[in-house]
Amino acid sequence: MAQKQKYYVVWEGVEPGIYSSWSDCQEQIKGYPGAKYRAYSSEQEARAAFHSGWESPKAEAIKKVSRDALPPEVITDSLAVDGACSGNPGATEYRGVHVGSGQLIFHQGPFAGGSNNLAEFLALVHALAYLQKQGKPNMVIYTDSITAIAWVRNRAIKSTINRTAKNKAIYELVDRALVWIKNNQWKNPIIKWETEKWGEIPADFGRK
């Protein structure tokens, strides 16, 4: 009988993240003082546990953003995107959230060996592609990343993170994103989220 696939979460190790093989997990924890890790039977469980942390590995609840909690100048029928990275490079992920309802629209990661800038860029391109497929060319996208806005505008990235075998997965997404923005046009307004005035962006991972 074939052995059932397991997923390994490393919270504290050489590079925190989710690994699909025990040998990859071992590379992150072997000889690492105080390593924290655990095996899960599904990728969904592993992702939820990674987000929640070692002490209480439960599914992460997406914060619901009330219309009343947002300033009047914020367009509620819009998408907010954000990225997060544990280390630089490190475990990287991103997501998109509907501003008015707080509904999670998409979430990708974590991926090993990325950066916050790469995550923010991928989130923004994902939102553009998603809204194009949904037939919503006028929906506003909010991001708090000036870098991501510049990379999308220039249709090129300027990352200091070198490509390695470890971060192959995230760079495959980056390459796909670059192809998409070079071969597509969009009308969606991309607006800088004013954190100092409005508070944290609705898609924020809350790890500051």
Description:
By secondary structure, the chain is of the alpha/beta class. The chain is built from 6 helices and 8 strands; from the N terminus they run E-E-H-E-H-E-E-E-H-E-H-H-E-H. The N and C termini lie far apart (45 Å).
Spatially, the strands of the biggest sheet line up as 6-5-4-7-8
Straight-line N-to-C gap = 45 Å
Instruction: Give the H and E element order.
Output: EEHEHEEEHEHHEH
Radius of gyration: 18 Å
Shape: globular
Share of residues in strands: 15-25%
Number of helices: 6
By helix and strand content, what is the structural category? alpha/beta
Main sheet summary:
5 strands, mixed
Low-confidence spans = 56-68
In short:
The strands form two sheets. Strands 6-5-4-7-8 form a five-stranded mixed beta sheet, with helices on one face. Strands 2-1-3 form a three-stranded antiparallel beta sheet, sandwiched between helices. It is α/β, with parallel strands linked by helices and 208 residues long. 31% of the residues lie in helices and 25% in strands.
